[in-house]
UniProtKB/TrEMBL annotation:
Lineage: Bacteria, Pseudomonadati, Pseudomonadota, Gammaproteobacteria, Pseudomonadales
Keywords: Cell membrane, Membrane, Transmembrane, Transmembrane helix
Protein location: Cell membrane
A Pfam family reported for this protein in Swiss-Prot or TrEMBL: Polysacc_synt
Protein name (database record): Membrane protein involved in the export of O-antigen and teichoic acid
Superkingdom assignment: Bacteria
Length: 443
């Protein structure tokens, strides 16, 4: 097993961030270029069905009950404590159980999809129910297959090779771009062909990563192991991550629903455009934070608290720079949006400022959350997430209906709901790195 010093950990972190930025930029470019090609190939209505289908399929990632994140933390802990036998058992058990879950879900959902009135679900008469059922069933097969083989990402994260995860995304996106371009040139519009090509490219990245990793680390190749005693600690940790993931999904999904109900669906467009623009900041900050997850796990289990403190000092400086860039983007946003969308989207007066404030608060919360995730002290985070949902929905509705803030009321409500995490996160982190975490702060 790999033994890592503080200097090596820092050097690897910088290397992973640099590579991740390059790979991510290329992956985003490939995705961006593929969109207009897909629109031309499928047409507006076909593309709308496709986009909705992808949204439905995105829920599949929650079926692992957080076991994947549990695997990442337990593997990083095994590496730090030099217990390779445990690491192999965790990998084998996780692959075995997720394989069983994926296979069972695949069969169940494909059978069930044959009884769903998909024309009503997608609100279309462009394609009949039988064809749509075939498309959905094909999507389910590929998404659940990828769901299983993507466990390699958790392994790579645990050994602090997060840039390879982004490289896998690049392989998938580049493959998807090539596939849709070939379809556009050689076939008539077909949602089924699109689904098959997307599914193959989706799996290609993780297959490539799996072949590369397991050929380099033969000792970690999974074998069949359906052991409850081994999976139990992964599930114990994973269920808390699962709760946080569900809370986050509900937290962000409700914003657009509230806007639709209070202001109408046309108002979602302006909110979505501004949100996507500022997502550049959260994406960039996320690339910087991601390699730290398992680095924090490793340092914590080696009791290297000095390295953790030094890492946080650097992250606070980066946070300051990120906040300044957010304000600069806010100042430039009207011009950028006008060039990007023309006159197609009207942006309410307060929306840009409120979104900038949300980004500044959210990146602060995420900076501490990544450490707490890494050291598995997430009980407070789970409670804070539940509190945020409880506050967010009624507050956003109230502000939307009883103020003149327009759509900005929803982003302001969301920001206020995050405020408990602004204080609780850093307080718990200080407790932990000063080794004074007791009671709920140690859980």
């Amino acid at each position: 097993m790999m033994q890592v010093s503080g200097k090596e950990r820092s050097s690897n972190y910088i290397s992973q961030v640099k590579k991740s930025v390059i790979y991510k930029a290329a992956a985003v470019a490939a995705s961006f270029i593929s969109v207009p090609i897909m629109l031309r190939y499928l047409g507006n209505e076909g593309y709308g069905i496709w986009s909705t289908l992808l949204t439905l399929m995105s829920w599949v990632v929650f079926f692992d009950l957080g076991i994947g994140n549990g695997l990442r933390n337990k593997l990083a802990e095994s590496i730090a404590t030099n217990t390779p036998d445990k690491a192999r058992a965790y990998i084998s058990s996780c692959y075995s159980w997720i394989g069983v879950i994926s296979g069972t879900l695949c069969i169940t959902l494909i059978i069930a999809s044959g009884f769903v009135p998909w024309q009503k679900v997608f609100n279309t008469t462009l394609l009949d129910d039988s064809y749509l059922s075939t498309v959905v069933g094909t999507s389910i097969f590929f998404v659940l297959t990828n769901f299983w083989i993507s466990l390699v990402n958790q392994i790579l994260g645990s050994i602090q090779k997060s840039s390879l995860i982004v490289l896998g995304q690049l392989i998938s996106n580049a493959g998807g771009l090539l596939a849709v371009y070939i379809l556009y040139l050689t076939t008539s519009p077909s949602l089924l062909y699109m689904t098959i090509s997307y599914g193959l490219s989706l799996c290609a990245g993780n297959i490539a990563l799996s072949v590369f990793h397991f050929s380099q680390h033969k000792e970690s190749r999974p074998s069949l192991l359906l052991s409850l005693s081994v999976i139990r600690p992964l599930l114990t940790v994973g269920l808390q991550f699962f709760g946080i993931q569900l809370a986050a999904l509900a937290f962000f999904a409700t914003d657009k629903i509230i806007i639709t109900q209070v202001f109408g669906p046309e108002s979602v467009a302006s909110y979505d455009v501004v949100f996507k623009l500022f997502a550049i900041i959260t994406l960039a900050h996320g690339l910087i934070l991601a390699p730290l997850w398992s680095a924090y796990t490793d340092a914590y289990h080696r009791s290297d608290f000095e390295w953790i403190k030094a890492a946080f000092k650097r992250q606070i400086v980066i946070y300051g720079i990120t906040s300044i860039l957010t304000l600069v983007l806010a100042a430039m946003a009207p011009t950028i949006i006008n060039l990007w969308t023309g006159s197609a989207v009207h942006v309410p007066e307060y929306l840009i400022g409120s979104m900038a404030l949300y980004i500044i608060v959210a990146t602060w919360v995420n900076m501490f959350a990544i450490f707490l995730n890494g050291v598995q002290k997430i009980r407070v985070s789970l409670l804070a997430s539940i509190a945020a949902i409880t506050i967010n929905i009624p507050l956003s509705i109230y502000l939307a209906r009883h103020t003149d803030l327009d759509v900005a009321a929803v982003s302001i409500g969301t920001t206020i709901a995050l405020l408990p995490g602004v204080l609780l996160g850093p307080y718990q982190v200080l407790k932990i790195i000063n080794q004074k975490d007791l009671g709920i702060w140690s859980r």
